[in-house]
Design a protein that fits this description.
489 residues; mainly alpha; 18 helices; 79% helix; disordered N terminus
Length: 489
């Protein structure tokens, strides 16, 4: 769920470059006229433009300083929370071997438990968001962190299959609404021109969660297994859950609900920041209802595309450690370090493609190219399933395509949605996509149980990713084919 509303990040980041272009317009008196008014009054107009330009630049610099202050105050805590949120989704993949061995779970049962997390998340996402708006983002985000941290830590007491199912569903239900809650909180603090760059930090946090979480999980499973008579996978869930409780208390105490509540901002800073944060809402005239969004050509196609992307994403997140182990690497710490490779490649590709996409205004073609890259990674992983070195290369290609395609995809929905209906439409697309998180683990687990190998499942996901790329390339309406406006310095 961590991937929702990335479109706002990329589109806002394009708009934010206007800030950098506001420079003083100082010209010699009597310089060449720019319009009829300049010709008639060269001196007065030049002075007036210079004064206006200096004021605009001064105001922009002041706003940038305020936003920088807010960023350093809020984003370290929020990014840390988001990092643990994403790790909470993938830690089950690292615990898979020990958990299955101790509980006697089949791959189908493991896949079902992994999918129940998503089912709980999807079912309770809307009710959670309704409560968030009622009680405030800060309090509700803290509640989410504390409750899912406790539920995650309770995984160490699981002793049978049904307890495993129940707790995975509960963890998903407790975490429901976290991603949209965080994104909503950012809209309360950051102007539209600065919101994109801060939202993009969340997606980098999710990539770093895989990058850091993989080796740390391997070390925990390898070095804490049996300590105090506790299995390694119990330690993994305990050490993943307790910090979330602490972070929830930190959110409740350290963050503020509104700009007006911030004692660390001066009265003038609060006034200027509030003016810029609320300005886009005052000038918004268009609004799409959720029903209208559903009826818009291309909307349901986007839902299908995101569903297929999530099938690939969960295939990577839940089965990468299994593939590495099956190729011949059995040391848990080494498996953890090697599992970080696709997330490293994904983080690099995310930044590079994001900048290229913003610079060119092209969205659809980059999504298509990344999906083809991901498909190549899945096929290559199947071909080199017994050769560790080439398998890691394939996983790197897979990670570059899958991880980077998610934020690239979220640049597409705002081409169809605007106004009050945008949030509902984007949430619906995200919900449709998360169904892929239910299908993918169960499908891969079932194929492995039937064939004794994960390789056929890799080919199936690769084929589905190719279909997704073809849909993006040839089945999109004109509105989604158009380039976004670009800004030239």
């Amino acid at each position: 769920m961590s991937q929702i509303d990335f479109a706002a990040a990329r589109r806002a980041s394009s708009v934010s470059t206007v800030d950098d272009a506001l420079e003083p317009s100082l010209e010699p008196q009597g310089a060449g006229a720019r319009d009829g008014a300049d010709t008639a009054h060269p001196e007065g107009t030049g002075k007036e433009r210079s004064h206006t330009g200096l004021n605009a630049t001064s105001e922009n610099l002041t706003l940038s300083a305020i936003v920088r202050k807010v960023t350093w105050r809020l984003m370290p805590v929020i990014m840390t929370c988001y990092l643990f949120a994403f790790f909470d989704r993938i830690n089950i993949s690292f615990a898979k071997f020990q958990l299955q061995s101790q509980l006697g779970l089949s791959d189908t049962a493991y896949g079902l438990g992994a999918s129940l997390f998503v089912i709980g998340y999807v079912l309770f996402e809307v009710p959670s968001n309704l409560f968030l708006y009622k009680v405030g983002a800060r309090r509700w985000i803290a509640r989410i962190m504390i409750s899912w941290g406790i539920a995650t830590a309770l995984m160490m007491f699981v002793s049978n299959e049904w307890q495993f199912y129940a707790l995975r569903f509960t963890i998903g239900a407790m975490e429901a609404g976290f991603a949209p809650g965080v994104l909503y909180y950012l809209t309360l603090w950051f102007p539209a021109s600065h919101r994109g760059r801060n939202t993009s930090l969340l997606f980098l946090a999710s990539a770093f969660s895989g990058l850091l979480g993989a080796p740390v999980s391997g070390l925990v499973l390898g070095h804490l297994d049996g300590v105090l008579g506790v299995p390694g996978w119990h330690w993994l869930f305990l050490l993943g859950g307790v910090p979330c409780v602490a972070l929830g208390l930190l959110v409740l105490r350290f963050l503020d609900d509104r700009i007006e509540d911030a004692t660390w901002l001066s009265t003038g800073e609060k006034a200027q920041l509030s003016q810029h944060v609320t300005a886009p809402q005052k000038h918004s005239t268009r609004a799409h209802s959720l029903i209208g969004a559903i009826r818009t050509p291309g909307f349901l196609t986007l839902g299908l595309v995101y569903f297929l992307i999530q099938v690939a994403s969960y295939g990577l997140n839940f089965w990468a450690p299994h593939l590495i182990r099956a190729a011949g690497t059995h040391n848990p710490a080494m498996i953890g370090f090697l599992t970080a490779v696709p997330y490293i490649c994904g983080a690099i590709c995310m930044v590079v493609v994001g900048r290229m996409s913003d610079a060119s205004g092209e969205r659809r073609k980059y999504v298509c190219a990344l999906l083809v890259l991901a498909a190549a990674g899945f096929v290559a992983a199947g071909v080199f399933d017994t050769q560790t070195t080439w398998l890691i290369v394939a996983l790197g290609v897979m990670g570059a395509g899958v991880v980077a395609s998610i934020p690239a995809f979220w640049a597409l929905p705002p081409k169809l949605l605007s106004g009050a209906g945008a949030a509902g439409g984007i949430a619906l697309i995200n919900t449709l996509g998360q169904l892929g998180g239910i299908v993918s683990p169960i499908m891969v687990g079932r194929i492995h149980d039937l064939t004794g190998s994960t390789t056929p499942a890799l080919y199936v996901i690769g084929a589905m990713t190719v279909v997704c790329a073809l849909i993006v390339a040839f089945a999109m309406p004109a509105a989604l084919r158009d380039k976004d406006p670009t800004h030239t310095r």
